[in-house]
Design a protein that fits this description.
This protein is an alpha+beta fold and about 1200 residues long. The protein has five domains: about 130 residues, no CATH class; about 60 residues; about 290 residues, Calcium-transporting ATPase, transmembrane domain (Up-down Bundle); about 210 residues, HAD superfamily/HAD-like (Rossmann fold, 3-Layer(aba) Sandwich); about 200 residues, Calcium-transporting ATPase, cytoplasmic domain N (3-Layer(aba) Sandwich), CATH 3.40.1110.10. Helix content is about 40%, strand content about 20%. The strands form seven sheets. Strands 20, 21, 34, 35, 36, 37, 38, 39, 40, 41, 42 and 43 form a twelve-stranded mixed sheet that branches. Strands 22, 23, 24, 27, 28, 29, 30, 31, 32 and 33 form a ten-stranded antiparallel sheet that branches. The protein has a six-stranded antiparallel sheet with strand order 11-10-12-19-14-17, with helices on one face. Helix 28 runs antiparallel to helix 32, helix 29 packs antiparallel against helix 31 and helix 31 packs parallel to helix 34. The longest helix has about 40 residues.
């Protein structure tokens, strides 16, 4: 459809971003609208209901495709609206050539249609897009243009917007508000009632009332009312909580700089480009803003999950034309104040206030994006749910066949048309059980409750089933596998002669004064807040080891070029013989995970000015003079990293004291440094780590480490934790970006524990084995380890190698948050079901991307994760997988049981329809309510099996074992019912007209004349009594109990059935009641249940048939369906190949003798490496078929 109108018919919004969406243009057509209205009337409201469920169908019915320029309706279903700038004419006299709207640098000006002064806009998921007339596409508004350079931002917005500019922007961009309305109860109620499931229930209830089947109809109504009430209550509570989360955001008073002074206004009136003036008071930021003057200390726990103060610096006024986000190697986020975070301190660079330009407003902000991810969660495309729809369609198809059969039988029997319609519609409610969705939900609710008891909280219950399929878990290292707190073990000083003796802090002796002591005292991002030193735990440990003190400088503090609000560190009374009165921290280049370092410019009180650097040792030495780096640097570093220590490098240089610090560039400060030594911190494994990883590995669940730490430290932790066995080799993968004429390259080297490599300038100071011989044990006898930089090069230039590498890649070090998310997505493309476990800091993107994200942080950032563990260790991972497997198996059990229950009733009713008979209301009620409903509630109570087995439950309903199980049991039921139906008619005591022919008529008021139709083969309108009816009902009812027993699986994924005491008790009571009914000759009870008396021998025959059915079903389930070895043999016999991408790649790698290519280098311009690789699946879809 789109090809006819070319590219103008559709477009992609937010291309390359997580919320990327495709839109299509449509135009409403009058005649189509008229036809739809006619359809509404003649369909008695069914057509609008279908359009409500499928909005796209409504657009296709009402509209014709057109270009986006001409569209008045856009799919995603969004109506195009117009913003009329003439509404501003009272306050701003606008003309088409007015200077305020003439600047084509701004998207909002390019969106204004002249001379009408109108703007076309759409709104998608709370974000407003305007039509750019020059580029003919919709573009997002509510944020500054990304192509502005740093200099242009200072120039255009450094003096603030005029009142007129602000009003135009406010009209086009909309208010700076994150409005989450509390949804009215009536809206929630209508939305829930119009759910297809409840509409089908309404149809069923109406049908049952027309047939006087009031009891079960009332029971279904009561259950539906309770279910709807609970759902509406939960949705209302979530709506209220989300509203409270954001309501304070819209009513913050802020000070805005105008070209003519300042103005105080409510934050909802802010627009992109406004200039904020930040005072020294604490405040919640109501928007995203770029800091252009001064500095701030911000609490970003809302984003990162950690309440560690973060220092923000001003965007430099550089003169290049590079977009401001790319102006330097420093992370641009260092200049951005994010919405929802708290400013706890401001530091002005001069006499003026701290100022920031509004970058994004409303739902475009960081907090708005978080709220939108809650309002519009990523859709899950799990195979089970697609199969469930197919399963229901199969039942509907079966019901259709039954309807045709019913119509034929009743029409040929001369029944009234009304009865024919009722009986035919009855078949739908029998073949498609209305209680199916409720029964499936029950298992997930029980699993969620069990998880809560284990301290695991779930905000997305549907993900619990997906957890049952997890086969790869990515772990962060620090705070997840290892203890969060770091202990300062010692420091290794260095001079030109090499490393000196280790200074241990455990002895209590203070570090002697020198540049090394100065670096530890001042090279950090700590602040004093309410008399307490706050900041990164590593910085706190390092500073406390010096026994120095910290304070803010007073007004009487004056040093040339030094701000009056500088931070001062000075020796405490505990220290002695320190010839320095203190050190003033003049400027900071805060730590960045991308840069792997931080630097400070300091000045001794009445002394020299210096620069200190701290960071990853391999990065720090790359900025040092080579002659200051000890020759045995690599060996010394490896000595500590192989023991699992966290190692930090320190360096310094002296600066000129006379110059102004503003004139110094970071490149100049961070050059020609002198290496000072290594800071050694101990980071031990958590006690729970090794046993949990051993349990996962024994269950064939692959663990992967994804960390921002040093590569060698990560490999050591992987070995100590058991993630990599001591006997297996680790192969280092080093990839280099293309440099000039040299293409990108990737090299494989064997990582050895005893040999030492020479010093280099890469992030790989590790032992490289020069032995070119291949490992003797092939296959999975090796693990790949790489840095984030190598992973990036590999994915960009060697995408054909990436899947092969990922098959055995276990350690990913120095990974940025974006690289973590990218890695998880690559694993998902290989059909792995990926879990991510992190402490919340820098892991939010990965937690969102994974099939199951497990946060060990209880901060607000855990909103990004479906699961949050109260216990800060990885024991939650196997708990979650066990419960997921149990919930998944329970879902399959319920599907199978509900299918068999409906098929048993379906077979029985169709057999009775052959004699124009049926089950009575009380017989239906007994099966539906007393048997099936109670079984559905109690069958899911089995807990998870305490041990993880080395295989997963099937992930699909259409897998051969499940289909075979259902089909065989349906066949058994069909044979048994037909046998009973035929044999009862062949009994010598059988009579089609006399239901007392088998037994003496009972005494009392129960007479033949009131109970029996006297015409052969005909029943009275209110009587269902017959020998066929009684036989079919007893066989069907007891068979429902038998099927529940057979399908209630225990080991290996759920606890045995006998541990579910309530379920066993229910089955016992139900079976006892049925046997009692079968053998009890109680006339009043039989009359009420429309049963007839049969000879005792026939009742025994029924028990024998049911017993044979039970034995057959149990034997088939245990010997065939649950026989995993048998299915593996069958798969091998038929040459079955798994459709999972990772299985194919594993097979390919195993059969490739030249893999892995040790001590070889591949280049990106080689033909065999440049080709692409065709593997791509939706993130939440897998074709994995487990036996």
């Amino acid at each position: 459809m789109g090809d006819e109108y070319g590219k103008g018919h559709h477009a992609v919004l937010n291309k390359g971003e997580e919320n990327e969406v495709e839109i299509f243009g449509y135009q409403t057509e009058g005649c189509r609208r008229t036809l739809c209205i006619v359809g509404y009337v003649f369909s008695c409201g069914i057509l609008p209901l279908v359009f409500y469920w499928r909005p796209a169908w409504s657009v296709w019915a009402h509209c014709v495709p057109c270009t986006l320029r001409e569209a008045d309706v856009v799919l995603l279903r969004t109506t195009v609206t117009w913003i009329n700038l003439s509404s501003l004419k009272g306050s701003v006299s606008l003309t088409p050539d007015h200077p305020l709207i003439a600047d084509e640098d701004y998207v909002i000006n390019r969106a204004i249609l002249r001379p009408e002064l109108k703007v076309r806009c759409i709104q998608v998921q709370k974000i407003r897009y305007v039509w750019n007339n020059s580029e003919e596409q919709f573009q997002k508004v509510g944020c500054l243009e990304d192509n502005f350079s740093a200099a242009k931002i200072h120039l255009k917005f450094g003096s603030g917007l005029s009142r007129e500019e602000q009003e135009i922007r406010r009209l086009i961009c909309g208010p700076n508000a994150i409005d989450v309305e509390i949804t009215p109860i009536w809206k929630l109620l209508i939305k829930e009632v119009l759910n297809p499931f409840y509409v089908f229930q309404l149809f069923s209830v109406c049908l049952w009332f027309s047939e006087d089947y009031k009891e079960y109809a009332v029971a279904i109504i009561i259950m539906s009312i309770i279910s709807i009430t609970l759902t509406v209550y939960d949705l209302r509570e979530q709506s209220i909580k989300l509203h409270r989360l954001v309501e304070s955001h819209n009513s913050v008073l802020v000070t805005v700089c105008r070209k003519k002074g300042t103005q105080e206004l409510e934050s909802r009136h802010l627009v992109p480009g406004d200039l904020l003036s930040l005072s020294g008071n604490k405040m919640q930021l109501p928007c995203d803003a770029i800091l252009i003057d001064g500095g701030c200390v911000v609490n970003e726990s809302m984003l990162t999950g950690e309440s560690i103060p973060v220092i923000k610096t001003a965007l430099p006024r550089v003169g290049d034309t590079v977009p401001w986000k790319l102006h330097g190697e420093e992370d641009y986020k260092r200049h951005v104040l994010f919405c929802g975070t708290e400013v706890i301190q401001t530091k002005s660079a001069g006499p003026g206030a701290v100022r920031a330009v509004v970058l994004q407003t409303g739902f475009n902000t960081a907090k708005g994006d978080l709220v939108r991810s809650i309002l519009y969660p990523k859709p899950m495309n799990f195979q089970l749910y697609r199969d469930a729809v197919r399963f229901l369609l199969c039942l509907i198809g079966t019901a259709t066949i039954g309807m045709v059969y019913t119509i034929c039988v009743y029409v040929l029997s001369g029944e009234p048309a009304e009865d024919v319609v009722k009986k035919a519609l009855d078949v739908i409610t029998i073949a498609v059980p209305p209680a199916l969705p409720a029964a499936l939900t029950t298992g997930i609710i029980y699993a969620q409750r069990r998880l809560k008891k284990n301290g695991i909280f779930c905000i997305s219950p549907q993900r619990i089933n997906i957890c049952g399929q997890l086969n790869l878990i990515c772990f962060d290292k620090t705070g997840t596998l290892t203890k969060d707190g770091l202990d300062l073990w010692g420091v290794v000083p260095s001079d030109r002669n090499g490393f000196q003796e280790v200074h241990s802090f455990s002895s209590g002796s203070a570090l002697p004064w020198g540049p090394l002591c100065g670096a530890m005292a001042s090279c950090h991002s700590l602040i004093v807040l309410d008399g307490t030193i706050q900041g990164d735990p590593l910085d706190i440990k390092m500073f406390e080891a010096t026994n120095w003190e910290m304070e803010n400088s007073g007004k009487d503090f004056h040093i040339q070029g030094v701000p009056t609000q500088a931070m001062i560190v000075k020796p405490s009374q505990k220290t002695c013989h320190i010839p320095v009165g203190g050190i003033a921290i003049l400027h900071q280049y805060p730590f960045s995970s991308a840069l792997q370092r931080m630097s400070v410019i300091v000045q001794e009180v009445d002394g020299d000015r210096m620069a200190f650097m701290k960071g990853a040792p391999e990065r720090v030495v790359s900025f040092c003079q080579p002659d200051t780096v000890p020759s045995n640097f690599a060996g010394e570093l490896q000595n500590y990293t192989t023991q699992g220590f966290r190692v930090i490098g320190l360096a310094y240089k002296r600066l000129e004291s006379n110059g102004h610090i503003a004139a110094l560039t970071r490149e100049k400060v961070e050059s020609d440094l002198t290496f000072l030594g290594l800071l050694i911190l101990e980071n031990r494994l958590k006690e729970e780590t090794k046993p949990v990883l051993e349990e996962l590995i024994s269950a064939h669940i692959r663990p992967v480490m994804v960390t921002g730490d040093n590569l060698q430290t990560a490999v050591t932790v992987a070995r100590k934790s058991g993630m990599i066995a001591e006997s297996l080799r680790v192969i280092l993968l080093e990839a280099k970006e293309a440099e000039g004429p040299s293409p990108a390259s990737v090299t494989w080297r064997l990582l050895e524990d005893r040999k030492h490599a020479g010093y280099g300038d890469r992030d790989s100071y590790i032992n490289i084995g020069e032995d070119a011989s291949r490992p003797e044990d092939e296959g999975g006898s090796y693990h790949f380890a790489m840095t984030g930089k190598s992973y990036q090069v590999l994915s960009q230039h060697f995408n054909s190698l990436l899947p092969k590498v990922l098959m055995n890649a276990t350690v990913f070090a120095r990974m940025s948050p974006g690289q973590k998310s990218s890695l998880i997505e690559e694993f998902q493309k290989l059909d792995y079901f990926v879990g991510m476990c992190g402490d919340g800091a820098n892991d939010c993107g990965a937690l969102k991307m994974a099939h199951a994200g497990i946060s060990l942080s209880e901060q607000e950032a855990s909103v990004a994760s479906p699961f949050t563990s109260k216990a800060p260790n990885i024991e939650c991972v196997p708990h979650l997988i066990k419960e997921g497997r149990a919930a998944l198996v329970t879902s399959f059990c319920m599907f199978k049981y509900m299918a068999l229950y409906s098929m048993i009733q379906y077979i029985g009713v169709l057999l009775l329809y052959w004699k124009t008979n049926s089950l009575s209301n009380y017989q239906f009620l007994f099966q539906d309510l007393a048997i099936t409903t109670i079984i559905g509630i109690t069958m899911s109570l089995n807990g998870a099996y305490p041990k993880l087995v080395p295989y997963r439950p099937p992930g699909r309903l259409v897998s051969p074992p499940l289909l075979f199980s259902v089909l065989l049991n349906v066949l058994f039921s069909l044979v048994m019912h037909m046998l009973g139906f035929i044999l009862v008619r062949k009994q010598p005591w059988y009579s089609a007209t006399d239901v007392f022919s088998a037994c003496s008529p009972p005494k009392g008021n129960f007479s033949r004349s009131t109970a029996l139709p006297m015409l052969p083969g005909k029943l009275g309108p209110d009587s269902f009594m017959s020998y066929e009816n009684t036989t079919i009902w007893f066989l069907g009812t007891i068979n429902c109990i038998i099927v529940a027993l057979v399908f209630s699986k225990g080991k290996p994924f759920r606890q045995p059935i006998y541990t579910n005491y309530i379920f066993v008790l229910v089955l016992g009571i139900q079976m006892g009641a049925c046997i009692f009914l079968l053998f009890a000759n109680i006339p009043d009870l039989y009359q009420r249940m429309d049963l007839v008396c049969t000879p005792t021998l026939w009742r025994v025959y029924l028990i024998v048939m049911l017993a044979v059915n039970l034995i057959l079903s149990l034997v088939v389930e245990e010997a065939i369906i649950e026989n995993r070895a048998l299915w593996l043999i069958i798969k091998r016999s038929f040459g079955y190949q798994s459709k999972s991408q990772y299985r194919k790649w594993q097979s390919m790698v195993a059969n490739e003798p030249a893999w892995p290519p040790l001590n070889q280098t591949f280049y990106s311009d080689q033909p065999n490496n440049a080709r692409g690789v065709s593997y791509s699946n939706p993130v939440f879809e897998s074709h994995e078929e487990s036996p």
